[in-house]
Give the backbone structure.
Amino acid sequence: MKIFEFQFNPKAKKDRFFRVFSKEPAKGAEAQGSMYIVCELANALPTNSNFLERLSNVIEQEYYDPEKQPQAAAQRLKSALKKANSFLAEESKGGNVDWLGNLHFLLLLFAPTPQGYTLYFTKVGGMKLWMSRAGSLVDAGKSIESAKNDEGSVKIFGNVGSGRIIPGDRIIGLTPEAFEFFSKENFLQAVAQLHEEKQFRNMFEAKQKEMSQLMGILFFVLAEALEPANEEKKEGQSAFVRWSEQARLAARQVKFPQLKIPALPLRLPQPVLMLPSPSFLRKKLPFLMLSEARKRMGLLALLLFVLLLGFAILGGKSQRDNQLEQPEEQEQITAEMRVRYNIVDIEQPEVAAILPDSPSLREAQRMIQLGSKFYFFNSSSPNIAVFDGEVNASETLNTGKTIKLGTSSGNSLLFFAEPDTMVFLNATTDVVSQQQVAFPADAQFGGMEQYAGNLYFFDARSGDIFRSPIPQGESVTLKRWFDPLSPKKPINARAMGIDGNVWILTEENEIQRYFRGSYQESLNLDIVPAFRAVRSLKTTAQLPYLYLLEPAESRVVILSKSGQVLRQYMSPAFTNVRDFTVSPDGQTLYLFDGAKLYRISPVVY
């Protein structure tokens, strides 16, 4: 495991004490695990300057007591916390009540198991514990919070939480003021993606001015695979410490504002370009002995050659200089961009399901979700592959028509089959029905969505949008939705979403908004990397955001409807994603690549 400990201005005020303590098991007792304590005592009197040390020692000594009978880690921890409560009760009886209401305390215990590590944790006061897995960030400490203790009570330590830790997990502990700072502007989400000390420092240096007055502690653990048991260990040192000690010691006691941004490397001295002398040319080049005209032509050619050679050398030198200077500058820019553009890297996205190997699924390009069921289809087949994630079963339905477009309405799926047929699938009974509709003969529909009982179709070639009531047996006619006076039409539209406004994604990756048949605006986006091949756009009246899929950049992007970048989820696994869905509450994304169904949940904005 890697451990990073950052203390921000810990001695700025004399009545606030910050401490981090670590304790490793004795040799032969590695099963007891490694304990880390992050704590703060606020509004403290000078007489309590060592209070945190004394309290932590009580817990550590009781937990690691070598005289105790063998016990499970959970039982040892329970006994240690009981001892801590007794210590606090004695302090209170002796008149030391300065700590009441001012103690913030987080204890993390990593106990090794055959499968990895189990984390046991407890917390007091305003300490925060967050955990990140596969890009999702959750408030783990909230799981053990109960009704607040009476401020006069000395039974401080109560509930203990636990959970299995897997490689790639991030465990983040913060003192109250530190949490308040990091929770602003999605900064905590950006921090949760880091894994190297240099990344932390680059990010903090970019926020140096804002952090100059911050007091508190950030304690960050990156879980890695458990060290093999047969690997040699240093005397009295656990696998946990061997992997983390260097990173932890290098990162601790960070104090602002002393940090300085490192200077870019100096340019290398340019070599002197040495051209051959005339005497050298006269001795080596026989054409100088020819006629004057031929001499002049030869000299001209030689001069041109020398100039080209000089430009090539200097150009290559300049390019090499740029290549030498670029890596550090690019790394700094990347660290800043991660914060500014809310980039969340997901190394290994959660696989919600491995889909059966069937032709319908292999060839599918589109996906619709209703509850636990996913419907997959493509524009050259009458088949719909249905996968039920609740029972992990699949089937194939034949609609009798080659379906091109699809959407959902209530408990039904609606499909358009060229040239003039609507296909309906009841999601409860799997009954398929058809109805012919009078579509414009020259229309070439590229997308279909439903809103408020109406179907909307867009024709990317002409830029027209057509609307009709959802057919329910009666004859319906499509009507042009656009106001003839609209200053713009969505020519070359690629995708459409409707929430009352009609949102259009164009082939040029422009996002346009239309309302009541008229163009309103194009979003002015500030995003890095810039859009270059966005495949689809999704939104509904129930969703406050726009969701976009861009496999070319291996990402799903979430935008506010004013164009602000709220989140970019990036993963190499998303390069081959064909389509995605958004849950009605916006908290879960499912992505489909032909073989797997990936899940991002909860979605953090």
Q: What stands out?
A: The radius of gyration is 33 Å. The longest strand covers residues 103-113. The chain has a mean pLDDT of 82.
